[in-house]
Write a structure and sequence with these properties.
By secondary structure, the protein is mostly helical. It contains 16 helices and three strands.
Length: 419
């Protein structure tokens, strides 16, 4: 029997690897997609119930300790949330399967009671823990397990937010800024697309993105205005991350008992809600984002959303940070952009993309997010605003375990964690 040439053997090996990842990625995309759909529907039901019965907000002081107690009973009281996911992908640290049901239930409870949180950050934990378990069942080696976890992150993000390209790139980009695992590109895309198709099958994300009708073209004045807005967004993203990191430290300093922190956080968010007089800043706030892009201006909204979110997540409630980041960016953009001479809705969209970029240190994902949410028109200006925000936001970030490999200001190796 004639032996195959070396190029032929390499081609067969590559084809076998492609088929392997095609099967694994689609399997992960479907499984994680189904769980993410259930997660999405659970959060929507919780928000709907609170909308119909606003008095549920009075359960906040009980919901905080309940979530803390749930994690304690399950032996996960030291869970580091999304930071643990980043470590697991980068350093092959083990992710427990119980992370998935815990973040699933606790995030829904947070939204039901009226805590200020998103869902996409929680989805990263949900998808990564489920896919890590599948990787163990399939007896994958350490390197393949890392890819599998990124596939799970991409699938959950895609199913929940409806941005499959952004989800795939974000899963690769967020772990170590400046060094992407390109071997995970096709697997992450396949998982993300499979999960998106599952979500579409359940009629999720039928209304895609946010309509922007006042975008500008690539001309000298808009370039200058957008760059200035990017500078302001960089400063705000630093402030957002600083407050988010300071809140849990302050809670721990004055309230060493986690149950008391949960109780105090619930009381503070409840008191702030009553002081504001409405529940605009409770929950994720997607509806408020749409109303602001449509023409509403709430000058104080970005500061209040930061405060609500920090008090909620810092106390031990669970949920994501990404939608609050987008809310903050939209509120700030619709207020600051017109002061610079930019159109209202376009400013809000720029703020969403740029604050997301500054807070996550993911410029490629941010540009793709702008494309998938707002369309291709004015994409060069979105890219400029995100680039300026990325560069000037320094080494701050939402996730303390995120590593930035290369300096943002010169081509040199720094390998430091965000703060």
């Amino acid at each position: 029997m004639p032996q195959l040439s070396k190029p032929a053997r390499v081609s067969l090996t590559n084809a076998a690897l492609f088929v392997k990842w095609l099967l694994y990625s689609c399997l992960i995309g479907v499984i994680v997609g189904l769980v993410a759909v259930a997660f999405h529907l659970g959060i929507e039901l919780a928000a709907e119930l609170r909308g119909e019965h606003p008095g549920i907000i009075w359960l906040l002081p009980l919901a905080g300790p309940a979530i803390v107690l749930l994690y304690q009973v399950c032996g996960m009281e030291k869970d580091r949330g999304t930071n643990l996911v980043l470590v697991a992908v980068r350093d092959a640290e083990r992710l427990k399967l119980r992370t998935a049901p815990l973040i699933f239930l606790s995030t829904i409870l947070t939204h039901l009671a009226g805590g200020s949180a998103g869902r996409e950050g929680a989805a990263l934990q949900l998808g990564a823990s489920l896919s890590a378990y599948l990787g163990r069942l399939l007896r994958l080696d350490e390197k393949d397990k890392r890819i599998v976890m990124m596939c799970g992150m991409a699938a959950a993000f895609s199913a929940l937010f409806g941005t499959p390209i952004t989800a795939a790139v974000f899963a690769m980009e967020v772990v170590t800024v400046g060094r992407m695992y390109y071997a995970a590109m096709v697997p992450c895309m396949l998982s993300s697309y499979a999960a998106a198709l599952v979500a579409h099958g359940f009629d999720l994300h039928n209304v895609r993105g946010y309509p922007i009708h006042d975008a500008l073209g690539l001309e000298p004045l808009p370039v200058l205005q957008v760059a200035l807005l990017g500078v302001l967004c960089a400063l705000l993203s630093i402030f957002f991350c600083t407050v988010m990191h300071a809140a849990p430290r302050l809670y721990a300093r004055y309230l060493p008992d986690p149950l008391l922190r949960g109780l105090a956080g619930g009381v503070l968010v409840l008191a702030l809600t009553l002081l504001v007089g409405e529940q605009t800043y409770n929950g994720a706030g997607d509806g408020v984002i749409r109303s602001m892009l449509a023409g509403e201006t709430i000058p104080e909204a970005f500061l209040l959303k930061i405060l609500f979110t920090a008090l909620t997540l810092g106390a031990g409630f669970r949920g994501g940070e990404i939608v609050p980041v987008l809310f903050t960016g939209c509120a700030f953009g619709t207020w600051a952009g017109p002061l610079l001479g930019l159109p209202h809705g376009f400013s809000g969209a720029l703020g969403m993309a740029a604050i997301f970029c500054g807070a996550t240190n993911c410029p490629l994902s941010s540009i793709l997010l702008a494309f998938e949410l707002f369309g291709g028109e004015s994409l060069p200006l979105y890219a400029l605003c995100c680039g300026v925000s990325y560069m000037l936001s320094g080494y701050y970030g939402l996730y303390s375990e995120q590593k930035i490999i290369y300096s943002k200001f010169s081509p040199e190796w720094i390998d430091k964690k965000t703060h």
